[in-house]
């Protein structure tokens, strides 16, 4: 141990006193006995006076100010030393950032005393027995005398004070004050501190005061004390003053000066200064934390109406806990410090102790974490309340009562909570809007600030918003979003009296209104996208009726005025002239509409895919979808999940059925039936674009091949309402490892109905590809093989035409929304991200494709349908021609008989002909209008009329009296006994909506008909020879005409076959026969099983018979096509185009003898035509990403999600001339084949 100085810190001891460095205390008494002899003590004057300035109030800063280092500082912090005199300054540490702390240190030195152990006369005055006290480590060797005085200055700053400027001014004043001290100590003329800041607080600490400091009113009082310092010194310790520090000699070095009676055992382990510095920082942090908590508590107490009592008490508890933690830390530090100094424990225990209190549960940081938690919120509340806002929250005002208390004038309510303040941009924008409202509206419209942490009103998504209320109802849910939305919108406003809300449907041919603003101040070349000023939805112009549509309804375009979002427009709505506006609307293009046809076999999951597809476009991530209010869905679908409790092997597996959506015209697919029952169009609005998703019934319908025909006709009828297809998505499963009969049939059936020009728009989508790592999986090779069979199509599988989706993440979302949580969420999250990426890629690809003309596919399938219809009529017509030729030849032979004269000849000139006559029934009869239950025949009356023969008398005598006659699907007809409470007829199995009541039946009668030319000659009294020649000529002419029409029909069939071969992707589905055979075998198995069980199998027998008829009809069709698919032989057989098909059909319908019969035998499917208008508008209002627009809350007037189920025919407009206008999109005679299908 070396000599060291130890600050006196107000403690008084004599020379020779013993000191224990382990406890940092002086022991009573001294090793000196009596008064030391002359020469044993030396005194040396050390007169010196100086003043200094220090800034700061922490423990470290105060220790440095008094030159307290290392072990002494640690002892003070541990409570081993209680400073007195000027050392009391060390006790009052302050770390409050709003308190500026500084001090003037005035130091006067007088005398240095030193004990001289080398003096021989001293040895007889030493009591060395005291050295046996092993607790002592040092002896006081010298004392420095004088007086130390500290004048502490503090300034309390306000919250909004400029800290730097205040600190600079404070330090400048301290410097001035020091000069005053120095002047006073020199005895200069009286100075004044009147220029000091009156907000300063002064405390005087001096060795002349033993216990506490002296609080002063002004700095002048401190200066007065400085003047009195010489007097204080002269009156203390014989003019020496007070001890300033002690020089300590280690006892282990005493033997160098005197002979000791025994060897001293002194131990004291040194401690690393780094450890001690860490604890100084720790206790400073406790002071900082306490200052923060106390300031925060005071602030809360001042604003108790704006915060919860529980929070105030929690802060109070934190202050108490902090004080206890600090005290406990001090006690444990004291014990550890002494233990290490004594060598009882290693110094590393202090490091462990520091980490425990610096980082553990009792750390200053954790115990003061609550400080300021509500600070920013209180500042905000105080600010807005001072500007006129009315606070609702912890003051227990009722939010509902406040809103309801205002009538038409209404009020505003700013909803917020503590978390809402963390969204900086949104928070700042809403606050700026709030301050604007307080400036403008507070005089007339009250503005409430609603603290949702306290009020009954909850805040969705922790985002602040300003609501507008009128008559107690929320009219605007988010004023900021509303204003931003409105600022971006160009608005069109209709005259309210012109609004028509009676119709829910919209015409298919419509365009978004994108025209310049009519205002003269606006740029006439700038195209604006217009939205309704009431519902804020984009407005669309309907070409068929000249109405403009929005979510309000529809209104004539003449009733609209416009206000664009240009800076120069102003606030007024400006009208167009009717002629100008009509011209602009009539020239709108359809580039914003993208039509996507979705095809696939039954069970592939089209309905689920469309629901999932909409969600993938709506939400960028699965988490965003989970956080949404509801599940987006447009089609009912369902699926089952199984819940297994593997911890209990005896517990049964629980199955849950998850259902999504619901409509009366769709099944959900949960019981094996095809979910999609008819073609529907879901119009999905994303930004300014509309994607029409055309959902189709599955090919390979579970109800049989007849329904495949109906479904295909239904698809074509829907497509006929549109001009273009931008994309054709063929959905396939990813696990078809083999070319099964059903798989081949379904793929080829789809390709058979598509025009060759559609190949550029066809892509393949694979469902449930998570099991194949998001690739086509097992289906890839079978599909490639199938496409290679028709390599001339140009249809291939490539990256641009292959899309791999997975609906499992949508199923997970549906289950989650139904309260069923599934495991492995991370897998579903990855599935969502991939499927969304594929969905966006698919939409982007279709945008780049040249649209496929729908009329090409419609014409192609019209020709195919004609050929199917012609096969059976051709056979019947051929037989009819042969029969008529035979009859005519017999007549000719009879007429050639010259023995036939006079009246006998005239009788032979009368021809027998079958005609139909109607007979009135006593009671109504229920009959079926399905084409398979009807025959269409010539009336036989020579007027060209075709009559309908009802073969199926489903209820021959019906007693219902409230069913209108000759009305198909009259609502009351369902009560007929033919249906027995079901939807299908017991006799013919067709749907009840294909039935009607009749009050007559047609009977065949044979009549004699006279040729008109023969009749004329008879009336002219022609002779027998003339009559005979005329009869023979007419018979020959009729035979020739029959043969000619037969030849024309055969030539037409040949040309249609060539048309199919040239323009269809595949002219014949050669997998159909195998597919029907499979269905026949399946039905035969059902019949056999039913017989063994003695069940009624009549329906199965009828279905089997229908399948066999389907097979025969297919074979006839294939025979007709393959027989005539040859190269053209002459100009008459030149390859047809769509227009040529229409012209050829017109000529066939114009055949004088069999044209009307041919037209009447069309395979018209009534049920497919009942819903010619089935577009289901759906607006995505969610947070999409990747170019689809981020979701944000829209103003209250514009609902984010609109689904309108539309089944009605579109409106017809009667112009001034009284004739109805029609949109003949599929123009020409060919369109008559699909009368009732295309939009009229």
How many helices? The count is 29
The coarse overall form would be elongated
Give the amount of beta strand, in percent. 15-25%
* CATH class bucket of the domain at 605-850: Alpha Beta
CATH fold type of the domain at 605-850 = Rossmann fold
Radius of gyration, in Å, reads 52 Å
The CATH architecture classification of the domain at 605-850 is 3-Layer(aba) Sandwich
Strand count, sense and closure of the main sheet? 9 strands, antiparallel
What integer is the average pLDDT?
79
Q: What is the total tally of β strands?
A: 39
Helix content bin? 25-40%
Q: What is the first-to-last residue Cα distance?
A: 112 Å
* Main structural class: alpha+beta
Low-confidence stretches: 664-675, 1161-1174, 1182-1240
Assembly state: single chain
What is the assigned CATH homologous superfamily of the domain at 605-850? P-loop containing nucleotide triphosphate hydrolases
Notes on the protein architecture:
Mean pLDDT is 79; it is low at 664-675, 1161-1174 and 1182-1240. The protein is elongated and about 185 Å long. Among the domains are: 4-23 and 46-268, no CATH class; 274-330 and 344-358; 377-478, Glutaredoxin (3-Layer(aba) Sandwich); 489-589, no CATH class; 605-850, Rossmann fold (3-Layer(aba) Sandwich), CATH 3.40.50.300; 910-1010, no CATH class. With 1240 residues, the chain is α+β, with helices and mostly antiparallel strands. Helices cover 36% and strands 19% of the residues. InterPro entries: DUF7656 (IPR056073), DUF8206 (IPR058519), P-loop_NTPase (IPR027417), Sigma_54_int_dom_ATP-bd_1 (IPR025662), SNTX_MACPF/CDC-like_dom (IPR056072). Residues 5-256 form the SNTX MACPF/CDC-like domain. Residues 384-484 form the DUF7656 domain. Residues 1188-1229 are annotated as: Disordered.
């Amino acid at each position: 141990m070396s000599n060291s100085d130890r600050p006196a810190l107000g403690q008084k001891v004599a020379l020779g006193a013993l000191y224990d460095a382990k406890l940092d205390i002086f022991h009573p008494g001294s090793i000196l006995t009596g008064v030391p002899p002359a020469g044993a003590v030396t005194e040396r004057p050390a007169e010196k006076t100086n003043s200094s300035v220090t800034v700061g109030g922490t423990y470290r800063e105060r220790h440095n100010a008094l030159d307290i280092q290392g072990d002494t500082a640690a002892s003070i912090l541990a409570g081993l030393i209680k400073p007195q005199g000027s050392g009391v300054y060390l006790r009052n540490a302050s770390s409050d950032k709003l308190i500026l702390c500084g001090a003037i240190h005035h130091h006067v030195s007088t005398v240095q005393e030193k004990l001289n152990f080398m003096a021989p006369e001293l040895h007889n005055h030493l009591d060395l027995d005291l050295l046996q006290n092993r607790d002592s480590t040092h002896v006081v060797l010298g004392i420095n005398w004088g007086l130390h005085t500290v004048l502490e200055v503090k300034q309390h700053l306000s919250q909004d004070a400029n800290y730097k400027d205040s600190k600079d001014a404070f330090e400048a004043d301290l410097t001035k004050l020091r000069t005053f001290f120095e002047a006073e100590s020199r005895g200069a003329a009286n100075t004044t501190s009147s220029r000091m800041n009156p907000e300063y607080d002064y405390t005087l600490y001096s060795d002349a005061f033993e216990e506490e400091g002296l609080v002063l009113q002004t700095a002048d009082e401190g200066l007065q004390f400085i003047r009195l310092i010489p007097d204080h010194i002269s009156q203390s310790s014989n003019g020496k003053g007070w001890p300033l520090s002690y020089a300590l000699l280690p006892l282990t070095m005493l033997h160098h000066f005197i002979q000791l009676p025994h060897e001293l055992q002194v131990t004291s382990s040194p401690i690393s200064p780094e450890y001690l510095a860490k604890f100084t920082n720790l206790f400073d942090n406790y002071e900082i934390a306490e200052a923060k908590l106390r300031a925060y508590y005071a602030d809360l107490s001042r604003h108790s109406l704006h915060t919860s009592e529980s929070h105030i008490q929690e802060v109070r508890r934190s202050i108490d806990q902090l004080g206890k933690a600090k005290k406990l830390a001090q006690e444990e530090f004291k014990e550890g410090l002494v233990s290490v100094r004594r060598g009882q424990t290693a110094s590393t225990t202090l490091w462990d102790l520091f980490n425990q209190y610096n980082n553990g549960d009792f750390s200053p940081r954790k115990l003061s974490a609550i400080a300021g938690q509500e600070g920013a919120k209180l500042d905000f509340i105080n600010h807005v309340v001072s500007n006129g806002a009315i606070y609702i929250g912890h003051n227990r005002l009722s939010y509902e009562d406040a809103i309801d208390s205002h009538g038409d004038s209404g009020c505003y309510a700013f909803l917020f909570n503590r978390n809402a303040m963390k969204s900086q941009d949104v928070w700042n924008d809403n606050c700026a809007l709030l301050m604007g409202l307080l400036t403008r509206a507070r005089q007339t419209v009250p503005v409430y600030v609603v603290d949702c942490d306290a009020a009954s009103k909850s805040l969705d998504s922790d985002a602040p918003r300003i609501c507008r209320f009128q008559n107690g109802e929320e009219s605007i849910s988010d004023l900021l979003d509303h204003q931003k939305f409105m600022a971006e919108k160009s608005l069109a406003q209709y005259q309210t009296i012109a609004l028509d809300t009676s119709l829910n449907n919209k015409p298919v041919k419509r365009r978004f209104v994108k025209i310049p603003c009519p205002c003269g101040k606006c740029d006439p070349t700038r195209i604006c996208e217009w939205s309704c000023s009431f519902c804020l939805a984009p407005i669309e112009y309907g070409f068929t009726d000249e109405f403009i549509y929005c979510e309000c309804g529809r209104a004539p375009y003449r009733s609209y005025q416009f206000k664009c979002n240009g800076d120069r427009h102003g606030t007024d709505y400006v009208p167009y002239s009717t002629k100008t506006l009509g011209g602009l609307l009539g020239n709108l293009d359809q580039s914003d509409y993208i039509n996507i046809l979705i095809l696939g076999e039954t069970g592939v999951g089209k309905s689920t895919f469309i629901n999932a597809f909409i969600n993938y476009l709506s939400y960028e991530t699965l988490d965003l979808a989970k956080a949404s209010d509801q599940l987006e869905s447009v089609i009912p679908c369902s699926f089952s999940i199984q819940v297994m409790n593997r911890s209990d092997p005896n517990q049964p597996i629980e199955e849950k059925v998850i259902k999504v959506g619901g409509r009366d015209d769709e099944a959900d697919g949960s019981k094996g039936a095809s979910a999609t029952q008819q073609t529907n169009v879901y119009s999905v609005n994303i930004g300014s674009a509309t994607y029409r998703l055309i959902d189709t019934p599955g090919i390979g319908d579970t109800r049989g091949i007849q329904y495949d025909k109906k479904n295909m006709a239904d698809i074509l009828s829907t497509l006929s309402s549109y001009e273009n297809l931008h994309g054709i998505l063929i959905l396939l499963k990813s696990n078809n490892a083999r070319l099964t009969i059903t798989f081949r049939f379904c793929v080829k059936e789809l390709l058979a109905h598509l025009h060759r020009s559609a190949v550029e728009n066809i892509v393949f989508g694979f469902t449930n590809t998570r099991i194949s790592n998001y690739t086509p999986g097992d289906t890839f090779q079978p599909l490639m093989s199938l496409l290679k069979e028709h390599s001339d199509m140009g249809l291939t599988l490539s990256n641009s035409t292959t899309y791999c989706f997975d609906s499992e993440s949508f199923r997970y979302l549906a289950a989650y929304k139904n309260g069923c949580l599934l495991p492995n969420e991370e897998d579903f999250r990855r599935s969502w991200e991939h499927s969304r990426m594929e969905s966006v890629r698919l939409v982007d690809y279709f945008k780049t494709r040249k649209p496929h003309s729908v009329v090409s596919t419609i014409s192609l399938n019209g020709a195919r349908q004609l050929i199917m219809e012609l096969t059976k009529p051709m056979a019947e017509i051929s037989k009819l021609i042969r029969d008529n030729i035979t009859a005519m030849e017999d007549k000719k032979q009879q007429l050639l008989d010259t023995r036939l004269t006079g009246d006998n000849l005239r009788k032979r000139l009368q021809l027998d002909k079958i005609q139909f006559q109607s007979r009135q029934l006593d009671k109504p009869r229920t009959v079926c209008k399905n084409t398979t239950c009807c025959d269409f025949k010539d009336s036989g009356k020579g007027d060209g009329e075709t009559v309908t023969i009802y073969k199926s008398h489903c209820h021959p005598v019906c007693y219902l009296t409230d069913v209108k006659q000759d009305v198909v699907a009259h609502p009351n007809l369902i009560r007929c006994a033919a249906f027995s409470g079901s939807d299908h007829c017991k006799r013919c199995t067709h749907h009840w909506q294909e039935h009607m009541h009749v009050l007559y039946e047609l009977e065949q009668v044979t009549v004699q008909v006279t040729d008109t030319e023969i009749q004329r000659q008879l009336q002219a009294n022609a002779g027998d020879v003339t009559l005979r020649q005329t009869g023979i000529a007419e018979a020959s002419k009729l035979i020739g005409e029959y043969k000619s029409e037969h030849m024309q029909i055969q030539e037409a069939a040949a040309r249609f076959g060539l048309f199919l071969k040239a323009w269809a992707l595949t002219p014949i589905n050669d997998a159909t026969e195998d597919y029907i055979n499979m269905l026949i075998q399946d039905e035969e198995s059902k019949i056999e099983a039913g017989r063994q069980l003695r069940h009624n199998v009549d329906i199965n027998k009828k279905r089997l018979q229908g399948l066999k008829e389907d097979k025969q009809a297919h074979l006839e069709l294939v025979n007709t096509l393959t027989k005539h698919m040859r190269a053209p032989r002459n100009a008459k057989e030149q390859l047809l185009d769509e227009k040529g098909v229409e012209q050829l059909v017109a000529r066939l319908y114009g055949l004088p003898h069999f044209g009307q019969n041919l037209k009447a035998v069309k395979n018209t499917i009534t049920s497919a035509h009942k819903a010619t208008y089935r577009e289901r508008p759906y607006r995505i209002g969610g947070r999409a990403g990747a170019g689809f627009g981020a979701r944000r809350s829209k103003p209250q007037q514009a609902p984010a999600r609109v689904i309108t189920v539309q089944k009605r025919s579109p409106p017809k407009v009667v112009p001034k001339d009284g004739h109805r206008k029609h949109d003949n999109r599929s123009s020409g005679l060919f369109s008559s084949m699909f009368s009732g299908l295309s939009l009229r």
